[in-house]
Amino acid sequence: MTERIAASEGFKKAARLRQMFLFLAERSFRDPPESVKEQEIGIEVFAREPGYDPGEDNIVRNAARQLRVKLREYFEGEGAGESWLVDMPKGGYRLVCEPRKGVETPPAPSTWRSQRLALIVFLLALSVAVNLLQWLAPRAPATAGAPSLATTLFPPASPAPRIVVGDFGLFLLSSLQNKRFPLNDYADRRYLNFLAPKHSPPFLQPFGELLSTRQIVSMGELNGAISLLQSLASSSQYPEIRHARTVTARDLRETSTILLGTENTNPWFKLFDHRVRMQFLQGGFQSLSHPSQRFGVEVSGARASGGRGYAHLAMLRLPSQAKVFMISGLNMSAVDAGAEFATRPQGLEELCEKLAVKPGQLSEFEAIVETQSADFTPTRYRVVWASLISAPAGLRN
After folding, report:
1. What is the dihedral of CA 134, 371, 67, 222, to 10 degrees?
2. Does residue 266 contact residue 256 with C-beta atoms inside 8 Å?
3. Tens digit of each residue's pLDDT (9 = 90 or more) over 75-128
């Protein structure tokens, strides 16, 4: 339903309102208990500088009034046949989804849970099937110009790596069940047993069928994979694109791989936790040995401001001599930015300077890249922490 609303006639010529609608849809689902702040919308959607004063700049309030009108017009016109209504009640910036009057729906455990489940269903339109990546593969341009981090780790003469994008369906299921699934449950597909709880309302049945039969990926990981594909593509071969659900631990240990995703979409990062210093903890990346080295959301719950995010990049060499290059982020924009960083010559230069090595000497490492984004599009990135990784004894030359 999100896609139909955003593509409707009322939003076609209102790009900013469409972006605001999609931003509020994501935030309303991702952090249901939290309120969406006016200043946050101004920064993320309307490219206002961090710290701007909403009292002096009322662009968000004006846009909110227009958005309410657009939503009302949609459901009175093109969306007259929709079974559910999406609205933004006055006094806040949170979208709510509720059934039209007269349409019978099963009782839900609570109003908040009902809204949450409905939002999960209509937010599936924000995802893109991983098959789109395969469709784009033959059209990727060949690498040209100065070397990047990606082309240095995987030069044209070497076998093309497999690119594994995260499972956005897993993230939706985890949110639906309020449950985190360990790697073992994901690897042997036990997590799929939670798709059809015995007492789930009927309108969730198509949702369970969709998650069990479709490979779904977030827009951030889609964009990141396309950037890597374009950077690594050569005239003779293209990297293979795989969905996290379709690979095994053996695949990752025996074939050079690029892992993309967040902690909530790609459980395969856990397979290599013992080799890296930075771990995903309480909404941020933190060093287990030096807790003061922390990047991301504070323990107190304060949100990063100004569209700022963090990506964790790490390159490991396995006993099989296969490489694993991991690009994870605190959100989908950070994943996109981390992949873009890895495909730009400036990224390679900045990382080597931080590590005090030459590109030809680049071996195992990990780094934290601070990112800035506007309208979910990366605009800036810089290395704020980096460290070389000492290879296990069996891998030393």
Report:
1. 10
2. no
3. 888 888 887 888 888 888 888 878 877 554 444 444 445 445 544 544 444 444
Q: What is the largest CA-CA distance in the chain?
A: 72
- What are the residues whose beta carbons fall under 8 Å from the beta carbon of 62, sequence distance 6 or more? none
**In angstroms, rounded to a whole number, what is the distance separating the alpha carbons of residues 162 and 252?**
9
- Cα(165)–Cα(183) distance, rounded to whole angstroms? 16
Query: Would you kindly state where each structural domain of the chain is located, as residue ranges?
Result: 2-107, 137-165+227-297+305-395
Tokens 């908040």 belong to: 112
Amino acid sitting at position 223: N
Residue 166 CB neighbours (<10 A)? 33
pTM: predicted TM-score of the whole model, two decimal places: 0.65
pLDDT one-digit tens code per residue, 92-101: 888 887 887 7
